[in-house]
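Listing 4. Sequential folding, example run.
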Amino acid sequence: MRLLVLSSRAVRDVLGYRRCADAMREALIARANGEVFQPLRFVLRPEGASGFMGLMPSYQSGPSAGYGLKAICITPGNPAAGLDAHQGIVLLSSPQTGEPLAVLNASAVTEIRTAAVSAVATAALANQNASTLAIIGTGVQARSHLAAIAATRPLAEVRIAGTSPAKAAKFASDVAPAALADAGAPAVPVVACDSARDAVAGAGIVVTATSSPVPVVSRDWLAPGTHINAVGACVPAARELDTATVADAGLFADSRESVLAESGDYLLAAAEDAVGPGHIRAEIGDLMAGVAPGLGRRNAEEITIFESLGLAVEDLAAASAAYRIAQDTGAGTWVDFD
């Protein structure tokens, strides 16, 4: 038995944003069609630890059958040390024998597939003519979302806001050009903004990719018709969007179960009696699979939110795509594992 090992660099070499977006769309449709089995992720939160561990298993049947397991540690203090907050592995196993086929760097898989799913959600929910992208955040997911959305739709301008104008300026001048080039995306003007309010004013697409526990976006800053990909708040006690934004918007989930259990954006608004479970209009996969007709964007003026928490099947789909490409190209490191 030969086991494929894909490092962070190797994952990026084989799994581009356009290719990954296609894999994410197929996986979300498969889930909507009942071809995916995945329990809610298990989270280990040791008292006094610097972070927590998430275990995300999944199985997909059909032509893309396989087992996947992501074991990932999330350590909020890592970015200050120059490390991604997400560290771990994705294991891909044979659907026939259960033999391990590949081990992939989970930080790179998470970086690419999260942004690719947001690109898919943006295509489904944003107004077709939306061409100004505002990104709140200057970390790994800010970079990957710039690359993924620019690679999958035409953009006229990108605006960046961070915890300081200096961080936004560095991102705009140094990080953004490299991210666009790596993704094979067209060059686009990237503007550093002094505040999140300045960045989102009039923007048709907004990405919140922060570690902030309190809102970074306020309802009265948003233009009619804005689509938001809310990426950073993945625990019940943290939120990136204020209650008014969540209450006024059409809310879409990657997983309804996950939003009800884990999303601080939703749970904190619900604790204020502003929303309830019925406020989650649909899962994004249901829209693409055609099993939720008429539940997408209602009109050009509506604000929409894609609450992105991440699904195990997304990691499985990304790992499967990377494995197939590595088989064809010889990428990565192959080791005997008998």
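-- end of first protein; second protein begins --
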Amino acid sequence: MTTKNTSPSIFQRVALIGKFQADGIGQVLDLIFDLAKTQGCSVWIEEETAKFTQNQHRPTISIKDIIGNIDLAIVIGGDGTLLGVGRHLAGADIPVIGINMGRLGYMTDIPLQEVAMILPQMLAGNYDSDSRHLLSASVIRKGNVTHEGLALNDVVVNRSSLTGMVELTVKVNGSFMYNQRSDGLIIATPTGSTAYSLSAGGPILHPRVEGIVLTPIAPHALSNRPIVLPHDVEIIVEVAGGKDVNAHFDMQSLSILQVGDQVRVKKSQKQVTLLHPQGHSDYKTLREKLHWNEYPSSF
């Protein structure tokens, strides 16, 4: 989970990537750009972010050029923005700092109002870090790969909102697990256990737990319950019946499925490193985001 960084390190090359639809993002980018420059960093704004926030007067960099040219990515937005950046940077050894302009923000955990105080300390090397593995998935149709993708949160096989239940056959490492009639199935990482899987009744996994969560979506049989599998298994989900079935990757890209198609999912060797303010606590994040009760320390 979190490991203290005891040796100061200044990031020389920093890229800012923002959710350009967010209100006030232009001013926030200006603030963070100036903070990083004050710390001695060379700073670029991702070119699409700059284009839509009228920040073209700042140095820009394309998303495809970040790998190999940048030491740190700062993401301004919500977890959805960070998911897209995380998939792109997976395996590139470029850490990511998330600044929250959204509502929940499990991964983008620096509140906007605290940026001026926290960010300079982190750029000076005072941070905690943790690495998150992704899922690697491929869609197989008649023996051929028709789609491949990565997911930091989850791979979801589900039906259209206009059709009936989907019928799925699930195997783990080639061993038959079950047939399921439901609205779909979520295959989630520990990172994704607090996302769609949680809303469908799945368990929360601590980021250091090496497991993969299978969470049925509105199953026909109430005995179909969520299950946590070992991290090193291959999961095969075959579409046995149903119409308008899709495979989603972090709910940001999709593949349209047919009966007989298989979605094969396993843990990717690629990972992304998240940087947090020093003293970061996953339990504190859960308390705040899920509004868990807090008792006095004398309880």
